[in-house]
Amino acid sequence: MFRSYYSRSKMIARDLLQSESIQLLLQYFSRLSAKISLQASTVPSRIVGVFLILMLVISIAVLTLKIDSTYSIVGGESVFYERDFSKTPFGLMDAYDACVLESKAKMGSGMLRNHILPLSTRYNHETDEYFVVLSADVGSVHDWSEAMIYCTIDVEKEMISHYKEIHDENSSLLSRTMSMLSDVLK
Predict the structure, then answer these.
(1) pLDDT tens digits for 17-45?
(2) Which domain holds residue 21?
(3) Same domain, yes or no: 60 and 141
(4) DSSP three-state, residue 74
(5) Environment class of 129 (CB within 10 Å of its CB; exposed 0-12, middle 13-18, buried 19+)
(6) Which one of 50, 57, 88, 108 is separated from 155 by 20 to 30 angstroms, measured CA to CA?
(7) pLDDT, tens digit, for every residue of 41-67?
(8) Entry pTM
(9) Dihedral of CA 23/27/29/33: which sign?
């Protein structure tokens, strides 16, 4: 489902080497080094070399950050990225994964646990969408509350068309017991 860091780095490096900007940059540096070599009698050659290497490193770093930002896909959309649905059709577990990834992207580390509610989760043949319902615990390990997460995943458009969280105002039994005990001990 996800590309590893190694394959992502290889793809970025390939794109970097094939990009026109890097080719133009290399041509510019070769012309600049030829021009500076003519003036080498006035400036020490070590300073010129260090300057050229520094400029090359800065340029490559800027281009890498620019290219890397185009490949950052988070949330539920990462399930659909570079997926060949003719070989492996989209199914209920893919819809579940998309909903979980979207909720983790929105809630961050606040989502402790989640599980699918099988009686509410379904596929709608008329609209070609999956409706996924998750029950999740949100908060910290000692103080959490329950939340219901509703996702609608459009299979044809390959995107999450609807996302909604409903948080329960009541805290967990453990957190209520701990607060009661702390009040008694005071």
Answers:
(1) 666 666 666 677 667 666 656 555 555 66
(2) 5-70
(3) no
(4) coil
(5) buried
(6) 108
(7) 555 667 767 777 888 788 777 777 665
(8) 0.53
(9) positive
